[in-house]
Structure formats: structure tokens, C-alpha cells
Amino acid sequence: MVRAWILPMLLVLCGSALVAGLILSESSLGTAAAVLPVFVLLAGVNSPLVFPRSIDSLEAQRRSAADGRPVVFWRPGCKYCIRLRIRLGRSARRLHWVNIWRDPAGAATVRAANDGNETVPTVFAAGRPHVNPTAAWVREQLSRSV
């Protein structure tokens, strides 16, 4: 779980150091005040907070079998996962999300589907893996589910 917060914490620390440097170099306070929120926003987007609560892969597969909804394997800091999550909007909450950094079985599932690579997002719909699908395709799979 700590690994998921490394990038967001680095972004906040770098932003804070940059703001401190701007203030100490007597630059305008307006610039310093504008820089920190940008780094905090980047940290928030790259944190696990943006994604719906992750479950383990066995539970996700069980739920998917019951309701037909796709399972999304992701990891924090992945720009493609973030892009998919943002483009899905509110419908992302209907999917089953598995963080491969927190679930070794999920990471193994992704490696098995991607020739040994942990390429994410990998979406399993109807038992078949799809690597880095479009949000429109994922929404279509959601509309087919129960």
C-alpha cells in the first residue's frame, strides 16, 4: 500500500519545495500560490483516491460472474488507468477494480493475459482480456451487463 502513495507524496514534496524556493527568492506570492495547487491536484489524480475502492481479484471475478460487469486491473500512477477512469466518469463505479500492486493474484492474472507483462489497464469482459480499451468500449460492455 505504501508504494501506491510514493508518487503522490513526491509530487506534494516537490511542489512544496518549489513554492518555498519561489518565496525565498522573493518571487511574486501569486506565482507561489498558483504552483502549489497544481502539484496537489497532480498528487490527487495519481493517488489511489481517484479510483473506486479496489477488491481482490477472486472477489472481482466472483462478482463479475454474478452481475456480468467487467473487471479492471489497474495500478496507481498509471496514466492510461487515470485516463480510462476520468473518461468513464460516474460509470466507473459500476466496474470491479483490482489494484495489481495490492493483489498478487491480480498481478499474476494480468501477467498471464499479457505475455508476462503487467500492462494496465487490462479489462476482463466475459472472461476475455482487453488491454488498454477505450472508455466507449468499456461503457458498451457495462450496458450489456445485468
SSE diagram, text form:
Layout lengths: L5 H19 L4 H17 L11 H11 L3 E4 L4 H10 L7 E4 L4 H10 L8 E4 L2 E4 L3 H10 L2
Parallel strand pairs: 1-2
Antiparallel strand pairs: 1-3, 3-4
Helix pairs in contact: 1-2, 4-6
* Average predicted local confidence, pLDDT: 89
> Strands of the largest sheet, in order across it?
2-1-3-4
Distance between the termini: 32 Å
Oligomer: single chain
Into which percentage range does the β-strand content fall?
5-15%
Structural classification: alpha+beta
Notes on the structure:
- There is one protein chain.
- It is built from 6 helices and 4 strands; from the N terminus they run H-H-H-E-H-E-H-E-E-H.
- It is elongated.
- It has a 4-stranded mixed beta sheet with strand order 2-1-3-4.
- It has helices spanning 6-24, 29-45, 57-67, 79-88, 104-113, 135-144, and strands at residues 71-74, 96-99, 122-125, 128-131.
- Helix 1 runs antiparallel to helix 2 (29-45).
- It is α+β, with helices and mostly antiparallel strands and 146 residues long.
